[in-house]
Design a protein that fits this description.
This protein has seven helices and seven strands, in the order E-E-E-H-E-H-E-H-E-H-E-H-H-H. The protein has a single domain, classed as TIM Barrel (Alpha-Beta Barrel), CATH 3.20.20.140. The protein has a seven-stranded parallel β-sheet with strand order 1-2-3-4-5-6-7. The model has no long low-confidence stretch (mean pLDDT 95). With 214 residues, the chain is an alpha/beta fold. Bound molecules: zinc ion (ZN).
């Protein structure tokens, strides 16, 4: 059961999280699931080589999502034009290998929505580390973009989000259990039910209905 959609650490129990790796550090361990991609912070001179490597890794059965990729107007070192180009490449790859995208987006929601429209992407995208409110979530959802919440989330949002759309992540923060405790309190739900819900939602996004295909 995967109940952490985005983390940079291998979970204690294999198969409970989607572990984020870059093309350079991809070394799959037995039983774990991964997302692999080129983060907007990691775009350097050899980005084309990185994307070439990524195209091969994307086919690996333990890689279940492409990314994180996206646009970061605050912390990205590459130009917005280059970040956009690298995102476009990963959108194409995601559609080609039929694996959804995990998105990192800082101060660029309008650009993200425009790219979603422009690329006519058919697979779901998941914007991780979502701190916005219900209005922004609704706008994203209409475009085919899910959102996942972690350490810094908007309380109003988790109180209002439909159970079919709730996704949780630990990212770089303290453990996923603490995130569940916090969100659980705000949603006034049973913790086991919430984990089951998130797993169901992740399965839906990955197209694993009703169970993993391998
Ligand atoms: Zn991350």
């Amino acid at each position: 059961m995967i109940y952490d959609i985005h983390t940079h650490h291998h979970p204690e129990e294999a198969g409970t999280a989607i572990v984020q790796l870059t093309p350079n550090d991809f070394a799959p361990r037995p039983g774990h699931y991964y997302s692999v991609g080129l983060h907007p912070w990691d775009i350097t001179g050899n980005w084309e080589v990185q994307l070439g490597k990524l195209a091969v890794m994307a086919l690996h059965p333990q890689v279940v999502m492409i990314g994180e990729t996206g646009i970061d107007k605050k912390n990205g070192s590459a130009s917005i034009a280059l970040q956009t180009e690298v995102l476009h490449e990963q959108v194409r790859l995601s559609e080609l290998v039929h694996k959804p995208l995990i998105i990192h987006c800082v101060k660029a929601i309008d650009e993200l929505l425009a790219i979603r429209k422009e690329t006519k992407a058919t697979l779901p995208w998941v914007l991780h580390g979502f701190r916005g409110g219900t209005k922004q979530y609704e706008q994203l959802k209409r475009a085919g973009i899910y959102v996942s919440v972690g350490e810094h989330y908007n309380e109003e949002f988790v109180k209002e989000v439909p159970l079919t759309d709730i996704l949780l992540e630990s990212d770089e923060s303290y453990g996923i259990d603490t995130i569940y405790e916090l969100v659980n309190n705000d949603m006034a739900m049973d913790e086991t039910d919430l984990r089951q819900r998130v797993w169901l939602n992740i399965r839906h996004i990955l197209g694993w209905e009703p169970t993993p295909p391998f």
